[in-house]
Automatic annotation (TrEMBL):
Organism: Escherichia coli
Organism superkingdom: Bacteria
Any GO CC annotation of this UniProt entry: outer membrane-bounded periplasmic space
GO biological process: transmembrane transport
Name the record gives this protein: TRAP transporter substrate-binding protein
Record keywords: Signal
Keyword Repeat tagged: no
Keyword Cell division in record: no
GO MF terms, alphabetically ordered: carbohydrate binding
SUPFAM superfamilies assigned to the protein according to its UniProt record, in alphabetical order: Periplasmic binding protein-like II
Amino acid sequence: MERSLFIRTVMLTLLFTVSFFSRGETTLRLAYAENSQPVKDALHFFGQQVEEKTGGEIKVAYFPDGQLGGERELVELIQANAVDITKVSSGLMESFSPLYGIFSLPYLFSNADEYYKVMDNPKIMDPVYQSTAAQGFIGIGWYDSGARNFYMSKSPIKSIEDLRGKKIRVMQSDTSIQTLKLLGASPIAMSQAEVYTSLQQGILDGAENNEFALTIARHGEVARYYTYDMHTRIPDVLLMSTATLAKLTPEQRTIVKDAIRASIEFEKAAWDKEIEKTKQAAVKDFNVEFFEIDKKPFQDAVQPIYDNLKNKPQLYKLYQQIQSAKH
């Protein structure tokens, strides 16, 4: 379906589905694509918190699992005021604001503690969140999406040489594409929905994602060699329409902000437990094998990305802030 027609169709559907800002009640339309269980649970926890703290004055209507389209369509629906809140990968957000590209830099974080210090730092994150305000939406929070690693269909990645010439699916991110090229692979940008079939048919040799891709998307059926190189920690980002935000009272805005903060902590606590369950399921159901490797050759190979960062003053300044904050 043509994209503009798709958006018009969705808007009409929503008009008949949800009464928004009527009779003294506010209904926030929250849509998301396919996600891991911790993220789904955190989004619903957010809604519960908002409804409870406002005494039912604000309600949240959910449109889950891609009912209204993929992540790019959901951002466009926010811009069209057809959706109030959504959650997307910051990898996608790079095409809306170059500042989000900072999170696609390879091996930026050594561990989860460094990552959390940066993501929970408003001095770093607020300018990133506000960078899309002129486009009709801003970031209001983030969720952990783990570390992205390589998984392959025919043989594991045990060294950087094993990546040479391999066709690997990446998100539509210039930085991710450049990273894969520097690692010697052949990056192929495609939607997540196409990955399973492409792995099955040999169009792809592998992909990169967190462990949930093995079970939720069932990629473990067709790619059972998972290697921990942890090349990126790309957060999920919660987005909200600026028009919606403007219609909330100051007290309601505070409640929404507090509910987001509570849902972030909820998701963090759930993430590691679910990852461990997912790994066990991937081994049991699909015979997936997990591998640890020496990351140094990978880190050395992508150094040109950092050498060129000084040519991008905004990103370089943000990079320096991150380096300071994470230590």
